[in-house]
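Tokens for chain A. Residues wanted.
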């Protein structure tokens, strides 16, 4: 395993600090009746810490060399299942009927689209314990008016509760990344969201942060429609709450449905 050369195209930085690994495992605390879904097991540092305590662990690994090693390493472990694939293309609904707990050190180069992909399967997910670049974790947990508040903040806030648990220094990895990392816990909310309409609204709203609502959302809503939602068209998107964005997305979704 130590001979594997980390590949930049997969965003590979392997967690090696035993104290951090144990701290993550302690935060997750899996039980014998639970099914864990690990994204990017890499060299299995976290896998080994969690596998003895859960009922099943399904790992998704895109690197064929690492996948081959993992397959050989856990060949005798009935609780371990390996999916050799790009996590962005995995349909998590196919992983049985049991609720899932998602864990993993997400590749930083695809962390945002991967979080969106996972959140769309949140109805069967108990929680997420994932490692991200500190700045991405801060965006997830940001509130209106904060300079880091944006598309990711709103979507995550509506879909889940976000709690940053602790930071992880670069020296805990090999090779050390150039950024600090954070462990964040996401606890999904039981709410039905119009994802497609919501994403259209958020993409338009935060495409240029300094635009007013009138200019940013002008192709989706008239000034009168914004005012009907109790919104000043001169406000900037960063001033709207997640619930206000949801109200706009719901209106857009309903209009699209009525238009057929």
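Reply:
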């Amino acid at each position: 395993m130590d001979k594997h050369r980390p590949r930049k195209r997969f965003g590979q930085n392997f967690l090696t600090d035993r104290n951090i690994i144990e701290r993550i495992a302690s935060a997750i605390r899996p039980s014998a009746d639970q099914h864990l879904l690990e994204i990017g097991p890499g060299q299995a540092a976290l896998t080994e810490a969690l596998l003895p305590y859960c009922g099943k662990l399904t790992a998704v690994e895109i690197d064929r060399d690492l996948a081959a090693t993992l397959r050989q390493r856990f060949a005798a472990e009935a609780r371990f299942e390996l999916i050799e694939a790009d996590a962005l293309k995995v349909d998590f609904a196919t992983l049985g009927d049991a609720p899932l707990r998602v864990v993993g050190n997400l590749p930083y180069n695809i962390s945002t689209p991967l979080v969106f992909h996972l959140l769309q399967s949140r109805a069967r997910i108990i929680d997420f314990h994932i490692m991200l670049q500190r700045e991405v974790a801060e965006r997830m947990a940001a509130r209106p008016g904060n300079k880091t508040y944006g598309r990711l903040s709103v979507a995550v806030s509506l879909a889940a509760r976000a709690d940053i648990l602790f930071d992880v220094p670069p020296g805990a990895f090999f090779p050390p990344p150039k950024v600090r990392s954070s462990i964040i816990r996401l606890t999904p909310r039981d709410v039905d969201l119009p994802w497609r309409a919501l994403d259209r609204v958020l993409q338009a709203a935060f495409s240029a942060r300094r635009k007013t609502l009138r200019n940013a959302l002008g192709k989706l809503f008239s000034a009168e429609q914004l005012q009907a939602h109790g919104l000043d068209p001169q406000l900037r998107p960063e001033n709207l709450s997640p619930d206000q964005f949801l109200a706009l997305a719901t209106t857009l979704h309903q209009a699209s449905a009525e238009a057929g």
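The first helix runs from residue 18 to 28. The longest strand covers residues 125-133.
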